[in-house]
Amino acid sequence: MEILLIRHGEPQWRRDGLAVSNPVLTERGHEQARLVARVIAAEHFDEGFCSPLVRARQTAAPVFEALGRPEQVADWLEEMRDPDYDGQPGHLLDQLYTSGRQRPSRDHWHGLPGGESMSDFVTRIRPGADAYLAERGIRRVHED
Fold first, then answer.
1. pLDDT truncated to tens, each residue of the chain (144 aa)?
2. Cys staple from 50: which of 14, 54, 60, 81, with CB 3.0 to 4.6 Å?
3. Radius of gyration of the chain (CA)
4. Which three-class secondary structure state does DSSP give residue 50?
């Protein structure tokens, strides 16, 4: 099995100076999505799924269209959750991510303050990933 993961295009993290938790893509992000779709249009994929987040769905839309497939959303593909800063002043977001980048790498496993930890993220997505693989006759070899 080969799996291709595509990161979403550039999101609009701020609107009117305020942070947006589940943002739409910028025009540049939409262009990035169109370019990805153009590059992989000739490839063959047995399946395609996207995260339920708006930026992921907007990135996937031209890809699904290029492949002639309907959108398929898999909730378990939602990325690690950040703190909910929706509607807060954008400078708070800057401070959050700046302080996050300055932390030692081992501290990234704890997530951002007020957000989801890596272990909580894994606990949340593992059942969906396991079910996806099991439906295809693949089981996880290593148990934690």
1. 788 999 999 999 999 999 999 999 999 999 999 999 999 999 999 999 999 999 999 999 999 999 999 999 999 999 999 888 899 998 888 888 788 788 888 887 888 888 999 999 999 999 999 999 999 998 876 665
2. 60
3. 17
4. strand
CB 80 within 8 A of CB 121: yes
∠ CA 63-68-72 to the nearest 5 degrees?
Answer: 65
Q: Which residues contact 49 (CB under 8 A, 6 or more apart)?
A: 72, 73, 74, 77
- Residues 104 and 59: their CA atoms lie apart, in Å, by 31
Q: Which helix (H) or strand (E) holds 55?
A: helix 54-67
Q: What is the 3-state secondary structure (H, E, C) of the chain?
A: CCCCCCCCCCECCEECCEECCCCCECHHHHHHHHHHHHHHCCCCCCCCCECCCHHHHHHHHHHHHHHCCCCCECHHHCCCCCCCCCCCEHHHHHHHHHHHHHCCHHHHHHCCCCCCCHHHHHHHHHHHHHHHHHHCCCCCCCCC
